[in-house]
Every structure is written in C-alpha cells, then in structure tokens.
Amino acid sequence: MTISRETVLEALKSIADPVSGNDIVSAGIARAVTVEGSTVRFVLEIDPGKSEAYGPVRDRADAAVAALPGVEKVSAMLTAHSQKAPPDLKPKQPAQAQQQAAPQKVPGVARILAVASGKGGVGKSTVSANIACALAMQGRKVGLLDADVYGPSQPKMLGVSGRPASPDGKTILPLRNHGVTMMSMGLMTGEDQAVIWRGPMLMGALQQMLLQVQWGELDVLIVDLPPGTGDVQMTLAQKTHVDGSIVVSTPQDVALIDARKGIDMFRKMNVPVLGMIENMSTHICSNCGHEEHVFGHGGVAQEAKKLNVPLLGEVPLHLDVRLAGDNGTPIVAAQPDSAQAKVFLDIATQLVDAGAA
Ligand SMILES: Nc1ncnc2c1ncn2[C@@H]1O[C@H](COP(=O)(O)OP(=O)(O)OP(=O)(O)O)[C@@H](O)[C@H]1O
User: Fold this and answer.
1) Residue predicted with more confidence, 338 or 168
2) Cα distance between residue 234 and residue 254, in whole Å
3) What domains appear along the chain, each with residue ranges and CATH number?
4) I need a surface site. Which of 9, 226, 245, 257 has the fewest CB within 10 A?
5) Is 296's C-beta closer than 6 angstroms to any atom of ligand 1?
6) Is this structure's pTM higher than 0.80?
7) Is there a binding annotation on residue 118?
C-alpha cells in the first residue's frame, strides 16, 4: 500500500501545537516529512528551551502517523530550530523556497570536522581513524562518525563490532574504543551487507546519526565522508554547521583532480578547508627501510600551494599502517613512536593549535 505525504500531513494536522494553539503543520513545527515504502520520517523543529513540553507532542504525532494504514515504522525527531520563526510546510514561492534553514549545531558537539577525498581508496578512513585516535591521545574528547555508507570501514579500523543499543528506541548509544566515541552505518547494517542508498535515505540516515546518537560532550566530531562530491557531502554541509574540512589525496594526478573538486565543493558551501593530507606518500620498505615513491611524491604539496590551502602532512605508504588498520588498532595507538604515527600525531597537534579540534 502506498502512503502519500499528504496523508501523513493530514494526520499530523490533527495534533495541536501547545505553544501557538495551531496544529503542528500550520505552526511550521512538523517538517521534512519523507515517506520511504512503509517508513515515515519527520522532524518537529522546536525552541530548544521547550523540549520537555514537546515530548508528548512528538509521541502523539508518532502515534497518529503509526495508526495510518500501511505505515510500519515512524521516525519522529525533535530538533532545535535556529531561527525565531521556522519555515512551514506550506507551498512556497520559488524565491522563498530557496531560503534554506541555517545549518544546525549538533547538541554537545563543539566542532565538526569533515574528512573527505575526491577519489575512493586514497586512505581517507585510515587518516580519519588515526587523527581521531591521535586527538584522543592528546586528551581531546573525540567522536568519529563513519558516514561512508558505500564502504563503512571504521568498525574494523577501530576494532568495534556488534549492533549499537537503543534502550529507548529513539536514541542510539555509540561505541567506544581507543578513547574515540564512534558510530558507523556499518554497525547498523552488518559488515558484509551490501547497501544501496538513495538520496533521501542517505539524508535521513546521516541526520539520524548526527542527531539521534548520544555523542555526549565532544570537543570535536570527525565525519569520515564517502569519496566524491555527492549527496552525503552536500547534506552534511547544508544541514549541519561544519567547522572545517580536510581533503586527503594520494600524489597521483588522477586523485589530485578529484581532490580539487572536493575543495571547490567545500568552498562553495562555505566550509573552511583546513588543509590537505598526502597519503601513500613515500613508500618505506618494512624490511630494509628503503624509500620509494610509488605514487610519486610532493604532488599534494604542489596542489595545496596552488589552491592556497595548508599541507597538513605527508603520510608514508607503509605495510604497518595497513596491518594496524586491519587489526583494529590504528598505527598511532599500535606504534605511537613510529615515523608513520608521528605524522598523524603532528597533524592532530596542528588541528588543536589552530582551534579546529
Ligand atoms: N599510508 C598507508 N600505508 C599503507 N596502507 C594504507 C595507507 N593508507 C591506507 N592504506 C590502506 O589502503 C586501503 C584503503 O584505505 P582506506 O580504506 O583508508 O581508504 P578510503 O579512502 O577510506 O577508501 P574508500 O573510499 O573505499 O572508503 C586500506 O586497506 C588501508 O589499510
């Protein structure tokens, strides 16, 4: 049975807004209604000071939608609006419709740092995991959100497994290892399950990860983005206040072309680019220590200079970096005194010194 968005809106109109006396749709409280098969999602955007008063409203709205024929699952979220008058669901003139709600902060999270790459497989997840651990080793309260829905790898890299608990059915308890609080789409879907995500599902899932996970008080939440410049990157920057971004690339031209696109996207979305990291830079032989430039060397430094962004570090290509990641203990934690670990620790120090983490 197909559920229409209009039917959902009608059901939501039966719920009164305790503050304005209107119904929650006319009052502009009920927003972002999406229907995916038998699942309905919506948010109630409220004054953060009135969250207690709106708890029962959310429950009533949830029940009204759940009672509709064909609805099997409802996700109703309370979110804090950042404007005095939240936009409503009524049809808008094109000019008004273009005015997006301002990007929101995630409660308790002081800063959000996005780690991106233009191209897949350049080591973005390895870099995210190591920077997260390095920051935790320096005493920062760190979260890591694995938003790489196409290839979630953080559970393996940080050595966590099992489905995260949700004692109240509304919030999700993150997992923790190496001093890092982490949540991954991989933990919601299972390691071997292939996931095909479509735009609206991605948006919903990402928002859910950001807002429903109990991150606690964090100095910084690192978001490990999927490669490229697609829906997830756009949604993150549009909906959430992202304080800075880091772009990871190998020194090869093909990777650099895509990295440039990534930097361009962040600039267009007004997300400060904190710097680039060259990964798989010099190869150091684990037997004899001989150095070789498998993918070239210095390409990222040149590109960073051209684009006028700092080069935060050059991470060598070293067997131990991969083995550490595969074993669930990133190299900074496994071999903190190694040359490879030092690069990550130095990047973490730079981020702290710059007030970015
Ligand atoms: N500096 C390095 N030295 C050795 N191996 C590395 C290094 N960086 C990453 N790797 C290895 O390369 C592989 C790809 O790395 P990773 O998963 O971090 O890349 P990614 O850019 O996040 O990939 P994807 O886009 O598929 O998510 C992994 O097996 C990882 O262990």
Assistant:
1) 338
2) 22
3) 5-97 (3.30.300.130), 112-353 (3.40.50.300)
4) 257
5) no
6) no
7) yes
